[in-house]
Amino acid sequence: MLHYLQVGGPILWLLTIISIAAFAVILERIAFFSRNEKAIGDTFIRRNSFFSSQ
After folding, report:
1. Is residue 48 part of a domain?
2. 29 and 39 in contact (C-beta within 8 Å)?
3. Is residue 7 situated within a structural domain?
4. Per-residue pLDDT for 52 more than 60?
5. Distance of CA 47 to the CA centre of its chain
6. What span, in angstroms and rounded, lies between the C-alpha atoms of 7 and 21?
7. 47 and 40 in contact (C-beta within 8 Å)?
8. Is the dihedral of CA 37, 43, 44, 48 positive or negative?
């Protein structure tokens, strides 16, 4: 793998870093919503009640 990154140049390093960051964000979202199953519904209820109360 390191050989391909050296041959590919800086663009390939950039794509690798962006891919790892995107994977980490997706993993974090999955972990958050699996821990707190009501988070999505509660967020929308809070937002709707906030806007309707004004």
Report:
1. yes
2. no
3. no
4. no
5. 21
6. 22
7. no
8. positive
